[in-house]
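Amino acid chain:
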Amino acid sequence: MTRLMRALFFLMLFVLPGSAGFGQEPAFRAIAFYSTHVEQDHVDFALQAIPFFGAMAKRDGFEFKATSDWNEMNPVALKQYQVVLWLDDAPSTAAQRLAFEEYMEHGGGWFGFHIAGWMDGRQTWPWFADFLGTLFYGNDWPPLPAKLTVDDPQHPAMKGVPASFLSPANEWYSWDPDPRKTPGVRVLMTLAPSNYPIGFKDTLEGGDIPVTWTNTKYRMLYTNMGHGDKILTNPQQNRFFESALLWLGRQSASAGSVVRAIGCNDSDRD
C-alpha cells in the first residue's frame, strides 16, 4: 500500500463530521478543502491537518468535515458551514470562486494556509487579490525554521501564543504590496528580523514580511504556514491554529485546552 493510500485510509476516520457529543448542537460547523494531486509537501501538511482539526473539533465542541471534492464549494453546501478552510489548494473554476465570494460577502469565515495565498498575478482572480490584500512576490528555499514575532497579542486568534517562538521548517513567502500597508489589514505575526537572510537557493534578504493577517472587511485569516510535515510539531504554533479557528467560529479557546504537537511525546505538550 502506498504512503498516500495509507494516509487516505487513516483520514476516513475524520472525513465524517465530528462534534462534541451525541445530541449536542455543535458550537459551529467547519469544512476543510484539500487536494491530493498538488505538491507533495502541501499534501503532507493537509493529511496531518485533517486529523489535527478533527481531534480539535471533538475537544472544543464544533463539527468538522474534510473533503477533496472542490465542487462542494457551492452555495447550497457552503451555507451549512460557518468556517471554510483551504489546506493545500484553492478553487479553480469560475463557479467555485463565485460561490466563495458570495459566501464571504455574506459573513462566512475563511482560514487559508500557505499555498492558499499564492496566485501568479492579480488577473487570475482580482476579487481574491483584494480579499487577501496583497499578492505573492517571492519565497525562500529550502524550507527552514524561522522565528516569528506576534504583532497583535490582544487579538483573539493569538490567545495563548507567546510573544515570539521558533516556527518549524516552512517555505516562507514575501508579498507585494506589504499587507501591513493595505487598508483594513491587521497583521498578527511577522518574520523576525533576526531570520535574515533566510534561504540558500532562494533567499529572503530582509524587510517587513508578515506571515499571518486578517482583512478586517471580512471574517478571514491567512497564515503562511503549511508546507511540509513539520508544521504541526510545535505546541505553541498549534495553539495559534486552535485559537484562530475558534475565533473564526466565534468561539474562544479555553485556558486549559491542550494542543498536541504531532510527532511529540506527552511530555512535549504545552
